Amino acid sequence: MKCRYIAIEREYGSGGTGIARALAVRMGIPCYGREILEEVSRGQNISVEQIERYEETVTNSFLYSVYMLAQTAAGKGDMLTADGHIYVKEQAVIRQLAANGSAIFLGHCAAEALKDHKGVVRVFIRCCDEEERRRRIVEEYGIPEGKAEAVRRKFDKKRANYYYANTVKKWDDMKNYDLVLDSGKLGEDICVKILCTLLP
Q1: Average pLDDT over residues 42-58
Q2: pLDDT tens per residue, range 146-186
Q3: Which of 25, 109, 151, 159 is most buried, by CB atoms within 10 Å?
């Protein structure tokens, strides 16, 4: 299979964003993460911060997820909640960006948006070394050491809830991915080199 798109989900503190950005530079292709929110923001006249608040408050209720997916599949956009509308717009933006050619996508259930596209590789980046993860959160992300663990839990929970609400799949279930990389064990540069081998 010829890889055209890499859809990355990542643990907070794994360095996944830095890995994706470095990969994009090395391969000369775009990387879309926050850019997806910025595009939705422009199209919907809503701030990126408001979109982020919607994403933070999404429920991980199974019944909500089934309801939202059913409304989306039936084309009943007017029946969706505010965060449901945001998700639909994000998915549309991801598909529009993918139409421009090979790219790397960070979060936002990108693999789901591209499930009908050929050449999508689903990647999960984690960091099993808790000390390395904490170091990165404090030193690279600028989070005070006393708050690092709480911030890590908050972001991982937000990502897990958002993923489940919109896919009815567990975010950290490794069966949902084609490739799982441990940045704590491999190092960020090796992760980038491995991902480079996927792209032509």
Answers
A1: 78
A2: 999 999 999 999 899 889 888 889 999 999 999 999 999 99
A3: 109
Q: How many domains does the chain have?
A: 1
- Rounded distance between C-alpha atoms, residue 71 and residue 83, angstroms: 13
Structural domain boundaries, residue 65: 5-196
> What is the pLDDT, as a whole number, of residue 65?
47
The CATH number of residue 28's host domain is 3.40.50.300
Residue whose structure tokens are 């663990």: 149
